[in-house]
Amino acid sequence: MKKVILALAAFSIAVGSYGPAFAAGKKEQQAVAKIEAEKAVQALVRKQAAQKATDLLNSKEWVIYLSPTGNSAGKRLPVITDVLTLKEGRVSSKHLTANGFGESYYTMTVYDSGTVVWETMQRTDKEDLAFLRGELRDGSLTGVMNMQTAKGVREEYSFGMNPPPAPAPAAAKKR
């Protein structure tokens, strides 16, 4: 009987000392499970946002206005009306197609803010390059288009869905 009492006492001491450690381990497992569940929800939200953005990008032809910026701003280049088409992971531009560029695949990133960024690079047979980066935010498309010829001539544009304001008329010269 003494042995049974001694064994029960030892078992009680063991359970008493491991009980808090076991509870702490369980809390840690619950915290890890909660973090994993939050990550899974975020991944699902991003996937749904990416699908929604893809559907919106693919839903129409995007009329954009290319305005010279950067090195091109002082060259008196005209504002160009262009049409972007994004479909099945590829993008094409009527302006670029007219200049020998073909369509290309684009990559897309969805940010927690809801902004979607897509990027692509295109090349002509003559080794001219064009880089496009677009941002889709609240249903509006903006971005940049940079082109460089094989000879190193660069043109830089920003684009958006709204035409830029017309330049102010020149002031009349005084006599």
Give a quick rundown of the structure:
With 175 residues, the chain is an alpha+beta fold. The chain has two helices and nine strands; from the N terminus they run H-E-E-E-H-E-E-E-E-E-E. It is 35% helix and 34% strand.
What does this protein structure show overall?
This protein is α+β, with helices and mostly antiparallel strands and 175 residues long. The chain has 2 domains: 1-57; 60-160, Lipocalin (Beta Barrel). The protein is built from 2 helices and 9 strands. It has helices spanning 2-58, 94-98, and strands at 61-68, 80-87, 90-93, 104-105, 107-110, 116-123, 129-137, 140-148, 154-160. The chain has a 9-stranded antiparallel β-sheet. A hairpin with a 5-residue loop joins β5 and β6 (116-123). The model has no long low-confidence stretch (mean pLDDT 84).
**Series of H and E elements:** HEEEHEEEEEE
Poorly predicted residue ranges: none
Chain-averaged pLDDT = 84
Name of the top-level CATH class of the largest domain = Mainly Beta
Main pleated sheet = 9 strands, antiparallel
What's the CATH architecture of the largest domain? Beta Barrel
- Specify the number of helices: 2
Q: How would you sum up the global shape?
A: elongated
CATH-defined topology of the largest domain: Lipocalin
Cα-to-Cα separation, first versus last residue: 124 Å
**SSE-based structural type:** alpha+beta
Features:
175 residues, alpha+beta, Lipocalin, 2 domains, 9-stranded antiparallel beta sheet, 2 helices
